[in-house]
Design brief:
This protein is of the alpha/beta class and about 450 residues long. It has helices spanning about 10-25, 70-75, 110-120, 125-135, 150-155, 160-170, 180-195, 205-215, 260-265, 270, 355-360, 360-380, 400-405, 440-455; strands at about 1-10, 30, 45, 50, 85-90, 95, 100-105, 200, 220-225, 230-235, 235-245, 250-255, 285-290, 305-310, 320-330, 345-350, 390-395, 430. Helix 1 (about 10-25) packs parallel to helix 14 (about 440-455), helix 2 (about 70-75) packs across helix 14 and helix 6 crosses helix 7. It is globular and about 60 Å long. It binds flavin-adenine dinucleotide. Flavin-adenine dinucleotide binds near residues 31 and 57.
């Protein structure tokens, strides 16, 4: 079979790119190795519960009348209506360190007042930071990487405020240990603090169904259980894809969403060695806990808590299996839904070490999952009221699970720290989008697919 474009991976970026291409009458096929779409942000069922793999919240929420930010841009590009996403806004989130807490909602003025109240000596500096952020072109494809820690610390003189600002931005979208690229800091600052959090009533299934239906309505083809085994190259051009089934598909252009090094590993040996890219190190455990009451009835009123147990926040691959000194506590029930969710859930995210998890034998792995879940809970109930007696179901996934289900090396949720903003590779008709292009999260991944499709695959239109 011959296509205009073959897309490897049916995560958020692959589906969004597919819609753009199919809309403009490209003969396009998305190849997905699993039986379910969604990649890092998919869904599953266990013990009768319908669970989202990852979704805490969609970032970048703005109301319907705002026109110029990433969410409306995304909707326009995918020909979707605002109502189609069925987004319900968060109640309130908080950054909690031992000495201070900063609350935020989807109203930026409230966040400003919280910063001013907690850090009165930094009010002018914070205004300077906002000016620097607003003047920065975070979407430039050829910007030189700049240290966000240096840039922010040169403006904000209180290191506690600096660390409190970095904590949520790093947890929700940073592939680099210790520091963050300044453009990425700006993207995440805007998407979380200036815009905000929302969630569809029916979770990530709703978004994925919407994307798949749109893609198919536009004429796109989606092949599930169709893992790509290798990319065949001739004269510096990707010529065809060999599937695990033995099928061979040819196409003019190939778009890969599986990560840069992971894509290079699909090339013949001599081509693959061209990659000198760093493999990402940052991964997480995600603990999913069902409780017998609404979290708010247990005293958990907030939507998302980003916590750290000391004044200095360290974002790095831990030496041990899991690091519970910081983390995220998410209550997916705490959004303004039209009707209460059928289940009551609390989710905990902690930094974790892929190598340590990967080295465990089967029995030890199971035991350590239980031990780490217990440790994550103990840390969480120092931050929120103790809800452990109300737990009726638990599940946990580790960096190893993330690797198994997405193929991202090291289970690195945000991919490599070296991003390829223009999506090009050394193979002239092979492009990268999604996690390793650099726009992260659900909205970011979709925008990445759209941007790279527009830039390289729709040019002749
Ligand atoms: C636990 C967790 C929680 C998260 N929470 C949030 C959140 O609350 N909000 C938010 O905005 N973002 C969140 N994210 C991040 C977000 O999910 C990702 O940034 C985004 O989904 C990445 O999409 P992608 O298309 O770039 O990549 P992926 O989702 O990784 O898609 C790549 C796809 O390629 C497939 N694939 C891999 N190799 C092959 C092959 N050889 N052949 C065929 N197919 C292949 C994979 O199966 C996968 O479906 C979370 C991620 C995780 C892991």
């Amino acid at each position: 079979m011959d296509y205009d474009v073959l897309i490897i991976g049916a995560g958020m970026s692959g589906l969004a790119a597919g819609i753009r291409l199919a809309y403009f009458d490209k003969k396009v096929c998305i190849l997905e190795k699993h039986h379910r779409v969604g990649g890092l942000n998919s869904f599953y069922s266990k013990d009768g519960y319908k669970l989202d793999v990852g979704l805490h919240a969609m970032t970048n929420y703005v109301s319907k009348d705002v026109k110029s930010t990433p969410l409306p841009k995304l909707l326009r590009q995918l020909r979707l209506r605002f109502e189609d996403l069925d987004l319900c806004q968060q109640h309130m989130s908080v950054i909690k360190f031992p000495e201070k807490k900063i609350r935020f909602t989807n109203n930026f003025e409230f966040f400003l007042s919280e910063v001013a109240e907690n850090f009165p000596s930094q009010t002018d500096n914070f205004q300077k930071l906002l000016k620097t952020i607003s003047e920065h072109d975070e979407l430039s494809l050829d910007a030189k990487p700049l240290s966000a820690r240096q840039a922010v610390s040169s403006i904000i003189s209180d290191p506690l405020l600096v660390d409190m600002l970095f904590c949520p931005l790093m947890y929700y979208g940073n592939a680099q240990e210790h520091d963050m690229e300044f453009g990425q800091f700006v993207i995440m600052f805007k998407s979380i603090f200036c815009e905000g959090f929302a969630r569809p009533q029916n979770g990530v299934r709703h978004i994925l169904n919407l994307l798949v239906n749109k893609y198919r309505d536009c004429g796109g083809e989606l092949r599930m259980r169709s893992g790509v085994q290798s990319i065949r190259v001739s004269d510096g051009k990707a010529e065809s894809l060999l599937l695990n089934s033995g099928d061979v598909l040819t196409s003019d252009k190939v778009l890969s969403t599986v990560g840069h090094v992971e894509t290079m590993n699909l090339l013949p040996n001599s081509d693959a060695t061209v990659s000198k890219h760093e493999v990402g190190q940052l991964s997480f455990t995600e603990s999913i806990l069902m409780v017998d009451k609404q979290p708010s009835d247990l005293g958990l009123e907030t939507t998302i808590i980003f916590f750290n147990d000391s004044d200095r926040f360290s974002y790095r691959k831990p030496d041990s299996l899991i690091d519970v000194s910081s983390g995220v506590i998410c209550c997916p029930n705490n959004f303004f839904f039209r009707e209460p969710l059928p289940d009551n859930m609390i989710r905990l995210t902690n930094l974790a070490n892929f190598d340590r998890w990967n080295s465990l034998g089967e029995e030890e792995y199971k035991m350590q999952k239980e031990a780490c879940l217990k440790a994550a809970l103990e840390a969480a109930v120092k931050i929120v009221p103790d809800f452990r007696d109300s737990i009726i179901f638990t599940d946990m996934f580790t960096p190893k699970t993330i690797y198994k289900f997405t193929g991202h090396l090291n289970g690195a949720v945000y991919g490599s720290p070296q991003k390829i903003r223009d999506g090009r590779t050394h193979i002239k008709n092979l492009f990268i989008c999604g996690t390793d292009q650099g726009f992260l999260g659900i909205v970011g991944a979709m925008l990445s697919g759209i941007s790279i499709a527009n830039l390289h695959l729709l040019r002749d239109k």
